[in-house]
Design a protein that fits this description.
Organism: Streptococcus milleri
Radius of gyration: 22 Å
Strand content: under 5%
Subcellular location: Cell membrane
Number of strands: 3
Protein name: Ascorbate-specific PTS system EIIC component
Subunit structure: Homodimer.
Number of domains: 1
Keywords: Cell membrane, Membrane, Phosphotransferase system, Sugar transport, Transmembrane, Transmembrane helix, Transport
Shape: globular
Strand order of the largest sheet: 1-3-2
C-alpha cells in the first residue's frame, strides 16, 4: 500500500506530469488527432522540465551567494527553505503527507466541477509542500489517522481552488486578459503587493516603460540586464567575504579566481532565468489550448492555476526590481527581529527571488514602478516575520532549525497552530466550516457557471 501511495505521490507532486496529464485529458476531450495529442501532451511536460531546469540553475547559483552574504557580513540564523523542512517532515509524516496530497488534489477537481471556484491548481510540488505543512501542524494539535487526512486534504483542496480566485482580478491585469490563474502558495503576498500598487501607484509608469538611452539600449535584453545585476550582487558579496572570511571564498571558488567566480556565477544565474522564460513559453503554447477541452467538456469554464515563474515574461524588468526590493525588505525584517530579540530569519535567496519577483510583477500591474517597489518590499518584510512566527508551531515536531518560506504557508500554519492551541480541534473544524461556506456561497448568491472573479476589468 505504501508503495502505491509513494508512486501516486511521485506522479501527482511532479508538476511536469500533472500538466501533461491535464493537457492529455483536454486534447482527448476535444477529439484531437492522436499525433497532436502526443505533441500537445509532451509540450507542457518538456516546457515544465525546462522551467525546472532553469529554476535549478538559479537555485544552484543563489546558494553560494547566500553563503557569501552569510560569511561576508556575519549574518547567522534560520534560513527558510521549503525543501529542507519538507525533507525533515517526510521522515516522520511521510504517509500522512502523501494521503493529504492525494485527497487534496481530488477535492480540488471536485470543487472546480461543482462550485464557482473553477481553478485547477497545477503546481504539484507546492501542493506537496502544503500537504506537509498541514500534516505537521494538524498533527501537533492532536489530529491522527483518518481525521488528520480528511481535514488536511479538505483544507488543501479548498485553498487550491479558493486562492487563485481571490486575486484573479489582479492576475488578469498581469496577463492582459490571458485566462490563467496564480497557482502558487505565495499568492497572498502577490495580491497584497497588487493592492498596495493600486493605492500608491497612481500615474506611475510601468517598469516595462523605463526610458533607456540608445547607448544603454542593450539593457532592454532581459538576460543581459539580469546577468549584470547579479554580477554586481556577487562581486559585493565576494569582496565582503574576502575581507572577513577569505577561506569561504577559496572553498566556493574551487581554484578559480574569486572575481572570475563571481562574474561566472552572476552570468550563469541569468542563463537560468532565460531557460525559465523559454520553458514558460513552451508550457503556455500547448497547455492553454489543451485546457479548453477540459473547460468545454469535463469542467465547464475551468481555469488553469500555474506556477509563479510562468508570469515572469509578462514583466521582466519588474522581476529584477521585485527581487531586489523584496530582499531589502527581508534584510530590514531580519534586523528588526534581531533588535526585538526574536528568531533571526536570514533572507533566503530562493523565496526572495521567486516570490519577490512575482510580487514585483503584481505590484507593477496595478501601480507601475512605485507599486512594484513598495509591493515587493512589503512582501519581503512578511517573508521575515511570517517564518519567525511560524517556527514555534513547527518546533513541536522538531522542525525548529528550519521553516517554510512562502507567504501562504506562514499564514495557514500560524492560523491553524494558534487556533488549535487556543481552543483545540474544535477551532480547526470551525475553519473548515468557514471554507465550506466560502466554497458554496457564490453559487447560492449568483447564478451562472463561470469561474468566480475571472472577468477582466476594463
Amino acid at each position: 500500500m505504501n508503495g502505491v501511495l509513494t508512486f501516486l505521490q511521485n506522479i501527482l507532486s511532479e508538476p511536469a506530469f500533472l500538466m501533461g496529464l491535464i493537457a492529455f485529458v483536454g486534447l482527448v476531450a476535444l477529439r484531437t488527432p492522436s499525433h497532436k495529442v502526443l505533441t500537445g501532451t509532451l509540450g507542457p511536460i518538456l516546457g515544465y522540465l525546462m522551467l525546472a531546469a532553469g529554476a535549478t540553475v538559479i537555485q544552484q547559483n543563489l546558494a553560494p551567494l547566500a553563503t557569501l552574504i552569510d560569511q561576508g557580513f556575519g549574518i547567522t540564523g534560520v534560513v527558510p527553505n521549503n525543501e529542507a523542512v519538507t525533507s525533515v517532515a517526510q521522515k516522520i509524516l511521510g504517509v500522512e503527507t502523501m494521503s493529504i496530497l492525494i485527497v487534496g488534489l481530488v477535492l480540488n477537481i471536485l470543487f472546480a466541477r461543482f462550485t464557482r471556484f473553477k481553478y485547477i491548481f497545477l503546481t504539484g510540488h507546492h501542493s506537496f509542500f502544503m500537504a506537509c505543512l498541514l500534516s505537521a501542524v494538524l498533527g501537533a494539535i492532536g489530529f491522527k489517522g483518518m481525521a488528520l487526512v480528511a481535514v488536511g486534504g479538505f483544507i488543501l483542496g479548498a485553498w487550491s481552488a479558493i486562492s487563485p480566485a481571490i486575486g484573479q482580478k489582479y492576475t488578469l491585469k498581469v496577463t492582459d486578459g490571458d485566462e490563467i490563474a496564480m497557482g502558487h502558495f505565495g499568492s497572498l503576498g502577490y495580491y497584497l503587493s497588487a493592492w498596495i500598487g493600486s493605492k500608491v501607484g497612481k500615474n506611475s509608469p510601468s517598469t516595462e516603460e523605463l526610458h533607456i538611452s540608445e547607448k544603454w539600449s542593450f539593457l532592454r535584453n532581459t538576460t543581459i540586464s539580469t546577468g549584470l545585476v547579479m554580477v554586481v550582487f556577487y562581486l559585493i558579496a565576494v569582496v565582503a567575504c574576502l575581507i572577513n572570511n577569505p577561506k569561504t571564498v577559496t572553498e566556493l571558488a574551487a581554484g578559480k579566481n574569486p572575481f572570475i567566480f563571481a562574474i561566472v556565477g552572476g552570468l550563469t544565474f541569468a542563463v537560468g532565468v532565460a531557460i525559465v522564460y523559454a520553458g514558460v513559453r513552451m508550457i503556455l503554447a500547448d497547455l492553454i489550448p489543451a485546457f479548453q477541452g477540459i473547460a468545454m467538456k469535463l469542467i465547464p469554464n475551468a481555469v488553469p492555476a500555474v506556477d509563479c515563474a510562468v508570469f515572469f515574461p509578462y514583466a521582466p524588468t519588474a522581476v529584477i526590481l521585485g527581487f531586489a526590493f523584496s530582499f531589502l525588505g527581508g534584510l530590514l525584517g531580519m534586523f528588526v527581529l534581531g533588535a526585538i530579540g526574536g528568531v533571526l530569519i536570514v533572507p533566503g535567496m530562493v523565496p526572495h527571488f521567486f516570490c519577490g519577483a512575482t510580487a514585483g510583477i503584481f505590484g507593477n500591474a496595478t501601480g507601475g514602478r512605485r507599486g512594484a517597489i513598495l509591493g515587493s518590499f512589503v512582501n519581503g518584510l512578511f517573508l521575515a516575520f511570517l517564518p519567525a512566527t511560524l517556527l514555534p508551531v513547527l518546533g513541536k515536531l522538531g522542525f525548529a532549525n528550519t521553516t517554510f518560506g512562502d507567504f501562504d504557508f506562514g499564514v495557514f500554519g500560524i492560523l491553524l497552530g494558534n487556533v488549535g492551541n487556543s481552543i483545540g480541534q474544535i477551532g480547526v473544524y470551525l475553519i473548515v466550516a468557514v471554507l465550506v461556506v466560502v466554497l458554496l456561497l457564490p453559487s447560492v448568491i449568483t447564478k451562472g457557471n463561470t469561474a468566480l472573479n475571472n472577468i477582466s476589468e476594463e
